């Protein structure tokens, strides 16, 4: 039986442990929701205050030049680039993940439809993040395409064929934490004549990503999860250099113009990835995001993304083992893969339908009871029609999650289940955000 002392010993040997000091974490809080919102880097408040009081307050309009505001999308993009396996000048920060997905999926469809009008299908997972599917549906109507959803990851290669235009996947599935094999699936898509669009929302900053080496065509990613950029932080997008200048993205804004300050009435797209910009960059949000990205870059001398991945797997393995050891008899089942190589940086649980908690639909209430005990995970609703259960989701962030945090979280979960306190009415009151 693993003890808390064992967890503390793992923390004592953790080479990444000093990086926790880079973050402002409330005392006594076990935060396992970094896959929804990363915690605040200590440098962020000072940096944003500096932008407000000095660059905006004193420099005013001159700061677009003097402080380099106009170059922030490329500057921060170049910092993110090595985290996802691409080169400098290939990735830009802009807009939201959803907006960027609209851009790159539209460009991919335009390229495919121009080359072969018979390619009219976008393939994805039924359990992909809903906004990705909504955008694919919307673009499908515009391009005369349909969306084909597969139920199991192993069925994806067989779904690819001569009518497939694009394979669109989130590298780490948000519901179950499964990590797709990007290289194998990109190769399968290319063999079928399709392009790939990857959503890195739950992988960038948590697992090593190698877009170029793994044959990806387009990608987008989130700034407020593992990149710690703050609520609503700008996202990023990437197009392989062989595609970047080959198609217009649909949001042809002035910042993506070849000469933004020429103020010409006609649009001329900038070369390369710069054309994927649209409007004026949100400078305050960009400043916060850069601080978050810098926390990840601080791991480079300590082993970088390889060390982050190794710790992530050790943390999630400990979580799995402890749930098995300490929470038996309550109907908990693992929705996440048990095989380490197939798991992202989260552990997802569900209650069996024949358990007391499963029959009561208790997943939401259990998460709320844990939050009341200062263990913050999150809940994701299921869909009985599609056979998807409610999910209790716990995301570990190796830069600041400790092994003792994992032990404490599972201990609190055990107590919540054994006392049955999740049955209290107060834990079933839902806010706008669940």
Automatic annotation (TrEMBL):
Its cofactor is pyridoxal 5'-phosphate. One of its GO terms (biological process) is anthranilate metabolic process. Pyridoxal 5'-phosphate binds at residues 97-98, 129-132, 170, 199, 202, 224, 254, 280. The modification N6-(pyridoxal phosphate)lysine is found at residue 225. Pathway: Amino-acid degradation; L-kynurenine degradation; L-alanine and anthranilate from L-kynurenine: step 1/1; Cofactor biosynthesis; NAD(+) biosynthesis; quinolinate from L-kynurenine: step 2/3. Keywords: Hydrolase, Pyridine nucleotide biosynthesis, Pyridoxal phosphate. GO terms for cellular component: cytoplasm. SUPFAM superfamilies: PLP-dependent transferases. Catalyzes the cleavage of L-kynurenine (L-Kyn) and L-3-hydroxykynurenine (L-3OHKyn) into anthranilic acid (AA) and 3-hydroxyanthranilic acid (3-OHAA), respectively. Homodimer. This is Kynureninase. It comes from Pseudaquabacterium pictum. The gene is kynU.
């Amino acid at each position: 039986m693993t003890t808390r002392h064992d967890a503390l010993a793992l923390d004592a040997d953790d080479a990444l442990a000093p990086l926790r000091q880079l973050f402002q974490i409330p005392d006594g809080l076990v935060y396992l929701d970094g896959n929804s919102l990363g915690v605040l880097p200590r440098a962020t408040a000072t940096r944003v205050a500096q932008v407000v009081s000095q660059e905006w307050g004193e420099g005013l309009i001159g700061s677009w030049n003097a402080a380099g505001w106009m170059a922030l999308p490329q500057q921060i993009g170049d910092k993110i680039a090595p985290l996802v396996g691409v080169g400098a000048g290939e990735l830009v920060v802009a807009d939201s993940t959803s907006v960027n997905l609209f851009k790159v999926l539209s460009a991919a469809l335009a390229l495919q439809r121009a080359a072969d009008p018979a390619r009219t299908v976008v393939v994805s997972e039924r359990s992909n993040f809903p906004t990705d599917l909504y955008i694919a549906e919307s673009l499908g109507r515009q391009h005369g395409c349909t969306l084909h959803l597969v139920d199991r990851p192993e069925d994806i290669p067989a779904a690819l064929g001569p009518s497939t235009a694009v394979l669109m996947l989130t590298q780490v599935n948000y519901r179950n934490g499964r990590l797709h094999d990007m290289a194998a699936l990109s190769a399968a898509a290319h063999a079928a004549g399709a392009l790939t669009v990857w959503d890195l929302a739950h992988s960038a900053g948590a697992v090593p990503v190698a877009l170029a080496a793994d044959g990806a065509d387009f990608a987008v990613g989130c700034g407020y999860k593992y990149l710690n950029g703050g609520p609503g932080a700008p996202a990023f997008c990437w197009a392989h250099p062989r595609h970047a200048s080959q198609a217009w993205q649909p949001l042809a804004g002035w910042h993506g113009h070849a000469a933004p300050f020429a103020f010409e009435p006609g649009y001329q797209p900038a070369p390369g990835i710069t054309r994927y910009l649209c409007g004026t960059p949100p400078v305050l949000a960009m400043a916060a995001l850069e601080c978050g990205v810098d926390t990840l870059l601080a791991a480079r001398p300590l082993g970088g993304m390889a060390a982050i991945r190794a710790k992530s797997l050790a943390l999630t393995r400990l979580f799995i083992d402890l749930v098995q050891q300490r929470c038996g008899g309550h109907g908990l089942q693992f929705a996440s893969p048990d095989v380490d190589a197939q798991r992202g940086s989260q552990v997802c649980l569900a209650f069996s339908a024949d358990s007391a908690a499963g029959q009561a639909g208790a997943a939401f209430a259990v998460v709320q009871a844990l939050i009341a005990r200062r263990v913050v995970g999150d809940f994701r609703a299921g869909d009985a029609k599609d056979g998807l259960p409610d999910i209790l989701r716990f995301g570990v962030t190796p830069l600041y999650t400790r092994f003792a945090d994992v032990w404490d979280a599972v201990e609190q979960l055990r107590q919540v289940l054994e006392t049955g306190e999740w049955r209290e009415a107060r834990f079933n009151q839902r806010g706008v955000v669940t």
